[in-house]
Amino acid sequence: MSNPHSDRSRRQFLKIAAGTAAAVTVAGALPRRARAADPPHLSPSDPAAQALGYAENTAQVSQAKYPNHKLTQDCSNCSFYQGAAGAAWGPCQLFPGKAVSVNGWCSAYALKQ
C-alpha cells in the first residue's frame, strides 16, 4: 500500500517541474534583448566626442576645421577601434563605455598598423 502523503508530494514535485520546464521553453522562444555587452552609441553631442571632433560619418567631417582629415580615414581602420570585423558599431579606446560607428572619425585618428 502506498503512502498518500508521498503520492501528494510526488505529484506536487512533478507539477512544479513541468511548470519550470514550460517557463524555460517559453523564455527561450522570446526575442532576445540587446546584449548587455553592447555599449551605447557615442553621440556627436557628447562632450568627449565634441572635444575630439567625432563624426558618425567620415564624409561629414569639415575639411576647413580638420585639414589633415582624409576620406579614407574612418574608425574601422583606426588603431583605437576595437570592434569586431563586419560590425557597424564597436568600442573605442578613446571613448570608454561607448560604441563608435565604423564609418566615424575623430581628430585622434591613427592608422591601424
What does this entry show, briefly?
By secondary structure, the protein is mostly helical.
Would you mind describing this structure in some detail?
With 113 residues, the chain is mainly alpha-helical. The chain is built from two helices and two strands. The protein has a two-stranded antiparallel ribbon. Strand 1 and strand 2 (99-101) form a beta hairpin. The longest helix is centred in the first third of the chain and has 26 residues, at 4-29. It is rod-shaped and about 90 Å long. It starts with a helix and ends in a 12-residue tail after the last strand.
- Chain-averaged pLDDT: 84
SSE succession: HHEE
Computed Rg: 26 Å
Tally of structural domains:
2
Tell me the CATH architecture of the largest domain. Irregular
Taken as a percent bin, the fraction of beta residues is: 5-15%
- Spans of at least 5 consecutive residues whose pLDDT stays below 50 are none
Helix content: 25-40%
CATH topology of the largest domain, by name, is High-Potential Iron-Sulfur Protein, Chain A
Q: What overall form do the CA principal axes indicate?
A: rod-shaped
Number of strands: 2
- State the separation between the terminal residues, measured CA to CA: 79 Å
What strand line-up does the widest sheet have? 1-2
- Give the name of the CATH superfamily of the largest domain: High potential iron-sulphur protein
- Tally of helical segments: 2
Largest sheet: 2 strands, antiparallel
- By helix and strand content, what is the structural category? mainly alpha
CATH top level assignment of the largest domain: Few Secondary Structures
